[in-house]
Specification:
Oligomer: single chain
Helix content: 25-40%
Strand content: 15-25%
Number of strands: 11
Largest sheet: 8 strands, parallel, barrel
Number of helices: 11
């Protein structure tokens, strides 16, 4: 049975068409009809929050072509998971990061987006919350590697709480969802941020849904799609009163027609779907409603 009013979320914006996590990608997603956009937050050396998926910078910025920052390349940790030689956001001030420009992560798969390499600044949370195009919109904020950054002296949950107190986003009609893959970090975010919106626990293939605990504390749960297409996890979550979301629909992953591929997401029973191609999912969802 088709879900009612399934929502379309621009994953890192319209990231199939513009370099991800830029203001330009977010605006395009809304222009394409997305109900919300999702972005990722990491800290700077001077305690600001920029919008990047990773704390390393080489895959989504032009930092490697900037000789003035060559000295900042080092061996570093990506979250808790791996070590790599790269440039890391926590080593740069916001002013330094503003000198960089965004680039397409998937250059071979997305040459149209790669044409915009070098044109867009790295965005901040402040800029997103005060941009003209976000007035009246829903924004989904994911805190990346919260426990790791806190251990390094960057209390990202507290920084986020301060930003949400300082910026008058409510009067602009903005609504929020806050997310994390780390259950304890999400608890901390809820504790320090309070009643700013909904809280959603993210579950990947290496995680556990913790349905009962999640339903007692948070508003929703969001799954990697491979976990739900051949399971009853969506039903289990909804039976506990949770909102359910699924990610990520990408045209490049379609094995048959893109319409069939996106329809599979639209009909999975979730309340919302994250996609790199908001225009394609919006079109499929609209077709299913008629």
């Amino acid at each position: 049975m088709r879900p009612e009013k399934i929502k379309v979320f621009g994953h890192r914006g319209a990231s199939a068409y513009r370099p991800e996590n830029t203001l330009e990608a977010f605006k395009l997603a809304f222009d394409m009809g997305a109900d919300a956009i999702e972005c990722d937050l990491v800290p700077t050396k001077d305690g600001q929050l920029i919008i990047r998926h990773d704390n390393y910078l080489s895959t989504t910025t032009d930092v490697a072509s900037r000789p003035e920052f060559e000295h900042l390349k080092r061996e570093g940790i990506v979250g808790w998971q791996e070590t790599r030689a790269d440039w890391f956001c926590e080593d740069f001030t916001l002013a330094e990061l503003k000198q960089l420009r965004a680039t397409e992560r998937l250059t071979d798969e997305r040459p149209g987006s790669a044409k915009f390499d070098g044109q867009f600044e790295l965005a901040t949370l402040d800029e997103l919350l005060t941009s003209d195009f976000t007035a009246g919109k829903h924004l989904i904020l994911e805190v990346k590697h919260g426990a790791y950054f806190a251990a390094q002296g960057f209390p990202i949950s507290a920084i986020l709480a301060r930003k949400l107190r300082e910026i008058d986003w409510r009067s602009r009609g903005i609504t929020l969802t806050l997310e994390s893959f780390d259950f304890k970090v999400l608890e901390q975010i809820k504790k320090v941020c309070g009643d700013v919106g909904e809280y959603v626990f993210l579950v990947d293939t290496w995680g556990e849904p913790r349905f009962d605990e999640t339903s007692k504390i948070f508003d929703g749960i969001s799954f990697n799609s491979v976990l739900v297409f051949n399971s009853d996890w969506i039903e289990e979550a909804k039976a506990r009163g949770l909102k359910v979301f699924v990610w990520t629909a990408r045209a490049e992953d379609a094995e048959a027609s893109t319409d069939e591929y996106f329809a599979k997401f639209a009909l999975c029973g979730a309340d919302g779907v994250f996609t790199d191609n908001p225009d394609l999912l919006v079109e499929v969802v609209a077709g299913l409603e008629h």
